[in-house]
Amino acid sequence: MELAVELPDVPVQVRAMLYEQRAPSVCRSIFESLVEPLETQTSHACFCGHQIFCFLPAFPTPPPVENITLRSSPGDLMFFYAAENAYAWMHEEGGRMAPEGPTAAVYELAFNYGAVDLSYFAAEGWQGSLVGRITAGLEAFADACAQTLEHGTTALRVSRIESP
Amino acid sequence: MSADTLTVALPGYDVEATVELSRERAPVVCASILATLGVPVRASATHACFDGHAIFCFLPNVGSVPVQNCTMRPMPGDVMLYQAGVNFFDWLHEDAARLSPLGTDQVATELSFI
Q1: Which of B48, B57, B80 is nearest to B67 (CA)?
Q2: Is the dihedral of CA A83, A124, A45, A89 positive or negative?
Q3: Residue B47 to residue A150, Cβ atoms within 8 A
């Protein structure tokens, strides 16, 4: 399972592989949610470090946590799920960013473009799944992601790369 | 406006805030900030990526100042000043090299708005 992740207004594009052996249920759910390419905007992490993220459409069933880590690396893809009303911050952050409303369940796909520290949210009990890694194009992607801290959000497109 | 206040404007959004400096609690730090801002600083706001809901900018020409009124638990509306000496932190080579107008061969002084 592979994804194309684009910032079309820059433009840059990376290729990412999903860890379907290590996180099979989550990766399958992510891939199925992208049956149509996702056209959205980047959000930048403000607690976790050098990471951008987006929200995926709701999955039919809540995914398990698989392949947990607090020490993900530059280039890694992480997935975070939070049930409706699970965390206090959802009333603040979710209302601003999540497409489904302030306290709706969160299906977040995050792209580490540099150093990341996930211990802040882990201390609150939010664990993420390491679901894949960028296999090509990280350097230019990282430069563009870092620019969003200073210049704001940019368009983001996530799509499947269909196997031949 | 008293001598202990700052004006912080985001001209691109047409918003402005007034900051009251805590001169009694952080006298040396606040005096340095005021001295530096004898000339207004025009910079670009950068958003924090590890610290939460904060924007920051770098201040030029601030001498080395002590840490005063130290906290890890600033509240919304608080203003923090951070300094990092040359080569003191690993991340200076990544972040300050990209962001600070002074480069990495001078003390980096960051004013952060929570």
Answers
A1: B80
A2: positive
A3: yes
SS3 B39: coil
Determine the distance in angstroms separating the CA of A161 from the nearest CA of chain B, rounded to an integer.
30
User: Alpha helix (H) ranges present in chain A?
Assistant: 24-33, 93-97, 119-124, 138-151
Q: Which residues contact A150 (CB under 8 A, 6 or more apart)?
A: B44, B45, B46, B47, B99
Q: Do residues B36 and B59 make contact, with C-beta atoms less than 8 angstroms apart? A: yes
Give SS3 for A126.
Answer: coil
Q: What's the pLDDT tens digit per position in A135-150? A: 999 999 999 999 999 8
- Nearest Cα neighbor of A19 from A98, A80, A97, A77 is A77
Interface of A with B in 118-157 (CB under 8 A): 146, 149-150
Q: For the domain made up of A2-158, give the CATH fold.
A: Cyclophilin (2.40.100)
Report which residue type is found at B18. Answer: T
Residue A49 zone, left/alpha/beta (φ > 0; ψ -120 to 50; rest): left
Nearest to B47 among A46, A48, A50 (CB): A46
Q: Can you give the pTM of this predicted structure?
A: 0.86
A51 close to B (CB below 8 A): yes
Angle at B75 between CA B72 and CA B76, to 5 degrees: 135
A162 in helix, strand or coil? coil
d(CA A57, CA A50): 23
Burial of A75 (0-12, 13-18, 19+ CB in 10 A): buried
**Residues A83-96: tens digit of each pLDDT:** 988 888 887 765 55
Cα angle B16, B22, B24 (rounded to 5 degrees) comes to: 155
